[in-house]
Design a protein that fits this description.
467 residues; alpha/beta; 16 helices; 3 domains
Length: 467
């Protein structure tokens, strides 16, 4: 017999006429008008009410539209309209505040650059900012109550049916619930283990699925193919399910949870799934390159006196060179020489490199200070100008250590999908210094992977400011 689990009589028909995506889009529209109307509320409250001035409506129209558009755009880019964000107004209060502050700062900066800032009252801008922050946070609290009510009454639930094994369905649902809370397994349809191989093993399950799907019991179907299904059998299963007005998704669980479909391409009816794309490319690559060159060149010029002072201190403290160069692996595993101020009495760059430890006798007096303050890393600005490194990225390790870690961790090489950085996401989260313990390296790799998968210019700026 086929395996059909979950009593569908316990489930009501789907109420997802207004989906979470539609609801989120409505929030975008609502917040656009909140910011827009707040500009005129501030005008009437401050200029007309407090100062007794009469200003034309048209004078403030463009600013209201520009700020509303910018705030909604930045909030969207930061994921503040995702269902999880809308369901956590207190956790997202600071990100919302930062988006509003950045938008108003941009407005003021543009006003000064183009010399029209003096035409507008600073009191009006401050009042507008205050009203916007207050009303948007209050609106988010109200939206939370609405979302909770809709969810409790059967709306916004993601009802899914799975065609596959119990193990696959459980893993899939648990993975989905890590991302969003309101996932409901409406049904699990398994194969008849005693039937012939191929699509016939799912005949009874498909019949039950179609019957209950026509009663609007679920909104999505996830097909988890097993090793016994041939391409033609899978096509027959999908063909039978396509009569239902639901989303049908193919989930190749055999790939494991480490693979993600980044994009897809249809080539004359053949679908090609992209399981990896370039993490930083196109305009993103240009933005990162401009940030690297502008900041590193400016820093080298401004910090030249500090470079000279450190060089004198190193020469005074111990004999040897001012700079220390060591081979590291960079983008696409290319080997380059990293620049650092010398902090030790020895220079190691062979097949075996001993990491510095606390109270290491090899570290000089000046070297202790440079290491504690990370000033020994400053010469890596030269590597950034040369295009070998970036300001932000996974920290490069000595070639000897790189080879060692690559044998311990299968995903270690993923760090080389981007340029190494002077600082990184792992470093500002407390993972800096020696990595003799494999568990520490595992944690650092997890942070590096997060950075690579979630890179944005704003994330780079955040890391630089935190550094």
């Amino acid at each position: 017999m086929s395996e059909v689990i979950v009593d569908f009589r316990a489930h009501t028909a789907s109420k997802n006429v207004i989906t979470p995506k539609v609801a989120a889009d409505l929030v975008v529209v609502a917040e656009f008008f909140i910011v827009f109307l707040s500009a005129f509320l501030a005008k009437y409250a401050y200029l007309s009410g407090y100062l007794g001035q009469s200003e034309p409506f048209e004078k403030y129209f463009f600013h209201a539209v520009a700020a509303s558009t910018l705030i909604c755009h930045l909030a969207y880019r930061r994921g503040l309209y995702e269902p999880k964000a809308l369901g956590a107004p207190l956790r997202t209060a600071f990100p919302i505040l930062s988006v509003i502050a950045i938008s108003f700062a941009v407005m003021v900066l543009v006003g000064y650059v183009f010399k029209f800032a003096q035409l507008y009252s600073r009191g009006w801008m401050f009042t507008w900012f205050t009203i916007t922050v207050t009303v948007l946070i209050a609106e988010r609290l109200l939206i939370l109550r609405l979302f909770l009510w809709f969810t409790a009454n059967g709306y916004f639930r993601r009802r899914i049916a799975v065609l596959g094994s119990v193990e696959s369905a459980s893993e899939l649902v648990n993975a989905m619930r890590e991302k969003e809370a309101h996932v409901e397994l409406a049904g699990l349809f398994g194969a008849d283990e005693h039937a012939d191989a191929g699509s016939s093993r799912y005949s009874a399950a498909l019949a039950a699925m179609v019957n209950l799907g026509q009663q609007n019991r679920f909104d999505e179907i996830f097909i988890v193919p097993d090793k016994h299904l041939e391409q033609g059998d899978l096509a027959k299963i999908i063909s039978k399910l396509r009569i239902l007005p639901v989303v049908i998704k193919l989930c190749p669980m055999s790939l494991g949870r480490g693979f993600y479909v980044r994009d897809f391409e249809s080539i004359s009816g053949i679908t090609a799934l992209s399981v990896q794309t370039k993490p930083i490319s196109g305009w993103g690559g240009i933005q990162k390159m401009m940030l690297d060159y502008i900041v590193s060149v400016a820093a080298l010029v401004l910090l030249a006196p500090m470079f000279a002072a450190i060089a004198i201190a190193i020469k005074w403290d111990s004999p040897g060179t001012v700079f220390f160069r060591q081979r590291r692996h960079g983008f696409n595993h290319a080997v380059f020489s990293v620049w650092k101020f010398r902090t030790m009495t020895v220079i190691e760059d062979g097949d075996t490199v001993v990491q510095a430890k606390r109270e290491d006798a090899r570290v000089t007096r000046v070297g202790k200070f440079l290491r504690r303050t990370s000033l020994d890393e400053l010469p890596q600005l030269i590597n950034v100008v040369l295009g070998e490194m970036s300001l932000v990225g996974p920290r490069p390790h000595a070639v000897a250590h790189n080879n060692q870690y690559a044998e311990l961790f299968d995903t270690y090489g993923n760090r080389h999908l981007v340029k190494p950085g002077i600082t990184g996401w792992a470093q500002i989260n407390g993972l800096r210094g020696p990595t003799e313990n494999p568990e520490l390296m595992r944690k650092r790799l997890a942070y590096d992977q997060f950075y690579i998968e979630n890179w944005s210019l704003s994330l780079d700026i955040k890391i630089l400011l935190a550094t």
